[in-house]
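Data deposition worksheet. Section B asks for the primary sequence of the deposited chain exactly as it was used as input, without tags or linkers unless they were present during the calculation. Section C holds the resulting structure in token form. Section D is free text for depositor observations; keep each observation to a single sentence. Incomplete worksheets are returned to the depositor.
Section A, Depositor: J.P.
Section B:
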Amino acid sequence: MPLFDTHAHIDLARFGDAAAQREAALRAQAADVCAVVVPGIEPATWASLLAVAERLGREVPAVCFHTALGIHPQVLPDLEASRDGEACAALVTWLDSSAVVAIGECGLDFTPEIEAGAPRTRQIAVLRAHLAQARRRGLPLLLHCLKAHAALLELLSEAPLPPSILHSWSGSPELALRFCKAGHYISFAGSITLPRARRPAESARAVPADRLLIETDSPDQTPFTRRPLRNEPAFLPDIAAAVAAARGDSFARIAELSTANARRVLRLT
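Section C:
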């Protein structure tokens, strides 16, 4: 059954050179991965990301490489706060000229190490710029959220917003349901494969079938049985299998559901 990886940073240097990226794409094809979303994380990487996705699409046409552009909260400490307006303006320009399927990766990260370099008010201001573009363009967001679920829910609820994706879900089933009730989707990554992954498994059981997605978040979050290898889209079947086990469902059913859901939220149907 075809699988849709809604989040994989295959453009990053950790995947190696162009030949190594191509080999990873071929392994994804062999694993029956039909599509991959490659999210941007900062302005300096957007041009290369788009070029990598375009090249891989030509080299491995059986896998569709879709793109998204955004500013990740974890890169904000390394960017000058005085240039946030310039970065957000650049996002608008790039979105105007690029065929993206989503906006992001963006979001909130209220962990102490990130807040030390990017206070909450700054993170919220940058995220608001992404929300405005999502509303303007009717595009979903790829949302990172750590220690900030209440704040994120409040921001998403301020005005009508296209259904978006909470990527690499690590929160409780109760929180997952609140995002789903607000119209959004929950995507599960490598943490659900861990032997004692209680909260991810509970959340996977709680998420409605029509709001369920899967991803690798590669090169991070390698599935448990694949460690110490670097993660890649070819490992997506491990995520699907773990979600299926958590829900007491078949692999084929999870593959069908998650792929159909990905196409719907990304407006690819």
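Section D:
The chain has one domain: 3-265.
Residues 241 and 251 are 6 Å apart (CA to CA).
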